[in-house]
Every structure is written in C-alpha cells, then in structure tokens.
C-alpha cells in the first residue's frame, strides 16, 4: 500500500520546522508508527511531511528533582530502558513496555503518541492520572497545558495549527503506589480497556487516588467521582467495588471491533477491582 | 525540500554495500529494498504494522520496514535477511531449520531478523517469557509458535 503523494521537508532546526509547519499544508512526522499507517489507509493526507527525526534536541530525559522532563522525540524503547524513569515515574515505565511491540517501540515516540490522541492509546491515561503537563512550542511561543485539558476528543487535542508538543513534564509522586493494567484482544493491540492508578495510603486509608482509563471514552477518562468514593476511606473490598461501579457508570465506551460498550464497562469493573485489590 | 511528485536522492548501506537511489518521499522502505534493490527476502505481510514479516535492522534497531519511509533511512545502515549469514546459514537460521520452526516460511525472514535483534540485546540469558514478549510483533499463521520458541532458545545457546 502506498500512501498518497506528499512532499518532504527535513528541517535543520526546530525554528525551521515551526516556520514550515505554519506556512504550508504540512504534518509533523515523528516515529510515524500511527501516521504512516493512517496515510497508507488514506484516512488522512497531507501536502508535506516535516521530518522531526533529525531534531535530536527534542530527544531527552531529564531528572529535575521533583519532576521528570521527557522530550517529545524520545522513543518508547528509550523510556522502557531508562532506569531513572523506572524508579521515579514507574507508571510511565509500566505503560511504555506495553505500547505496540518491540519494533514499534524502537521507532514510535511519546510526543507522537500524545499528539495523536488515540483514545485507546497507553500514554493519555497515564498522563491524566499523573496530572502531567504538556509543553508545546510554536512561532507564537510556548504553552504549558495540563494533561486533563489537552485531550479534546478522538485524535483531537488542544494543539493549534503549527504547534508541536515539545516535552512532557511528569511530577514525581513520592509515597504513591502505581499500576498500569491493560486488557487487549490480542498481543500488541490497542487497549480494549486499560487503567492507570496512582494511590497513596496512610494508616490503611486512602489519602490520595487517581483513576484514569483508556479505551472507554473519546478521551482518556479520569474517573473523579470514583476517586471521591475512595478518598479518606479504607481500601477494602466493599469500597473498591463501589468505586468500580461508579467509574463504569460514568464512562461512555464505544462499541467497535475490540468490544461492545457493555462489555467494556464490565471489563472496566473487573480490572478496577483487581488492580486496586492488588494494591491493598 | 522535496515537492509532491518530485524524487529525493538517498544513500544507504545495506548488508555492507553502499547504495544510492532516487525515491519519491512516499516510497516505503520495504518497497525500496524489494523493488529497487531486488532484496526480496524481506516480505510484505499485513502491510499495517502488525505482522512483522517486513522486519529489518536499521541502525542497530529492529523496525517494521512497511512503516518507515525510504527517505527516513537516508544515511543509515540496514541489515536484511540476505546479509545475515554472509553466504552461509547464520546460527539463527540453522536453529530454525533444526527445530522445524517454519512451515510456509513467509514470516520466517521477519522472525529471524527480530530474533537477531533480541539476542543482540538480551544475550544468552533470554527467558522463554522474554522470547514470547520480544516476538509478539511477529505473526506466524502455521507453526503455533512452539517450534519458533525452541529455535530461538537453541540459537541463544549457540556461540556466535
């Protein structure tokens, strides 16, 4: 399958890339592991691809004490193999190992995945669970957007024309337990349902909890009502079950090849109960 | 800048040989390898980044060559199934043969290139679980995978 015809621009600097993106009918190419299939299937077309891969300044992982910065062009495999991320942002590490397969992780980037905003992708629920910040850049300047305000709909974000994700800032959650659990129809697939949890317990009671899901809505779904059910309460079977019910009743999953809306809600309940149960 | 419809010059080293070619930006790496260079060992299976039959090694990393543009490989080094054994069978190919790890053979070049990458990364200490996880981007519709796992285990123990 050939993609439709397009032009190609290889910028030497970020400024050149932003200039070109603003002037022309162009799309940025990062890892391309979603973009190229979508071009091949002719779901999208573009005048030009702007190849960001030469811009090595967008590929980095920085430990800044209370937070970790990850450059947009950082490959999934680089996140998985980064020992600092494994200890400081374990939820991101867990999710990065479950993206696609080895070959896809060698090429695909975190900035590309986040910008693509597939509602069943792994990172969006992780970002919303952690209250990560997305730093963008454009000719007009830089913006910092909270993950909860970034995802607007399926494959739709609050990025403007000519604006790029530059880096993602993850707060380090000290004293939290985290877990990312994904249910797939077959190995390597997008999530039918996945859950990202960050939880802090104090003397057996829930001091803070974040529950976020992929695959159950048109954006990552942060189940704030379900979080309220657990707050200040004991993490016991009864409360967990109640939270799972509340989370599922607030979701609006699609019916598609990966599962019906009803089934996805059932899976949501099961993985919520199991994941939180394992964190007791 | 290359305008739509124009071609772009690329230089790549494939299996140790330097090649130069002109490609339209939309040409996929797998088509460059197969149609322009005649290296038809690399297969097009699903053509949707799922099956892994098109797996090659680009700059030391395994990639799906149906999901990369040829122009993205410009200046890079590629290893395909043709370059693996230097005219003889590579130990991974030997192990696939010894263990009947193929039936129709269509997925085999991709399986072997991905195995090559896994063993390069993990060495001889690789566990069955790591093999299964590392190969899940490669689909085989004949063997049921059992003999492929055995072959990878055998290859991991043979000294190169």
TrEMBL record, chain A:
The keyword Iron-sulfur does not apply. Keywords: FAD, Flavoprotein, Oxidoreductase. It comes from the Archaea. The keyword Oxidoreductase applies. One of its GO terms (molecular function) is oxidoreductase activity. PROSITE patterns: FAD_PCMH. Residues 1-175 form the FAD-binding PCMH-type domain. This is Xanthine dehydrogenase family protein subunit M.
From TrEMBL, chain B:
GO terms for molecular function: 2 iron, 2 sulfur cluster binding; metal ion binding; oxidoreductase activity. The keyword Iron applies. It comes from Sulfuracidifex metallicus DSM 6482 = JCM 9184. The keyword Plastid does not apply. This is 2Fe-2S iron-sulfur cluster binding domain-containing protein. Keywords: 2Fe-2S, Iron, Iron-sulfur, Metal-binding, Oxidoreductase. PANTHER family: OXIDOREDUCTASE WITH IRON-SULFUR SUBUNIT (PTHR44379:SF5). It comes from the Archaea. Residues 8-84 form the 2Fe-2S ferredoxin-type domain. Pfam families: Fer2, Fer2_2.
């Amino acid at each position: 399958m050939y993609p439709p015809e397009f032009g190609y621009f290889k910028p030497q600097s970020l400024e050149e890339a932003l200039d070109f993106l603003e002037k022309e009918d162009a799309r940025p190419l990062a890892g391309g592991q979603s973009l190229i299939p979508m071009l091949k299937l002719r779901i999208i077309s573009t005048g030009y691809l702007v190849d960001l891969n030469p811009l090595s300044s967008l590929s980095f992982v920085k430990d800044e004490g209370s937070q970790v910065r990850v450059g947009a062009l950082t490959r999934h495999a680089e996140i998985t193999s980064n020992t600092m991320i494994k200890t400081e942002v374990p939820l991101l590490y867990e999710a990065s190992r479950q993206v696609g397969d080895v070959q896809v992780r060698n090429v695909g980037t975190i900035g590309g995945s986040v910008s693509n905003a597939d509602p069943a992708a792994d990172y969006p629920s992780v970002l919303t669970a952690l209250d990560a910040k997305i730093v963008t850049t454009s000719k007009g300047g830089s913006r910092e957007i909270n993950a909860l305000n970034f995802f607007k709909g399926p494959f739709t974000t609050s990025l403007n024309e000519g604006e790029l994700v530059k880096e993602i800032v993850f707060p380090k959650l000290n004293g939290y337990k985290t877990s990312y659990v994904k249910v797939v129809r077959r190995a390597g697939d997008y999530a039918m349902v996945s859950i990202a949890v960050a939880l802090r317990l104090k003397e057996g009671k829930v001091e803070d909890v974040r529950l976020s899901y992929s695959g159950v809505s048109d954006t990552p779904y942060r189940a704030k009502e379900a979080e309220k059910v657990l707050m200040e309460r004991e993490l016991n079977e009864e409360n967990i079950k109640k939270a799972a019910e509340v989370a599922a009743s607030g979701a609006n999953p699609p019916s598609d090849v990966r599962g019906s809306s009803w089934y996805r809600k059932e899976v949501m309940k099961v993985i919520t109960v199991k994941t939180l149960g394992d964190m007791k | 800048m290359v305008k739509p419809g124009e071609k772009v010059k690329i230089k790549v080293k494939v299996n140790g040989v330097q090649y130069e070619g002109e490609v339209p930006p939309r040409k996929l790496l797998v088509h460059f390898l197969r149609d322009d260079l005649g290296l038809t060992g690399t297969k097009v299976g699903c053509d949707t980044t799922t099956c892994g039959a098109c797996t090659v090694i680009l700059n030391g990393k395994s990639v799906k060559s149906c999901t990369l543009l040829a122009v993205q490989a410009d200046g890079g080094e590629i290893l395909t199934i043709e370059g693996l054994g230097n005219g003889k069978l590579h130990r991974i190919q030997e192990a696939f043969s010894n263990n009947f790890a193929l039936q129709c053979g269509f997925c085999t070049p991709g399986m072997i290139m991905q195995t090559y990458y896994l063993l390069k990364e993990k060495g001889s200490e690789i566990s069955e679980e790591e093999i299964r996880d590392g190969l899940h981007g490669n689909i085989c519709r004949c063997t049921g995978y059992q003999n492929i796992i055995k072959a990878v285990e055998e290859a991991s123990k043979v000294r190169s």
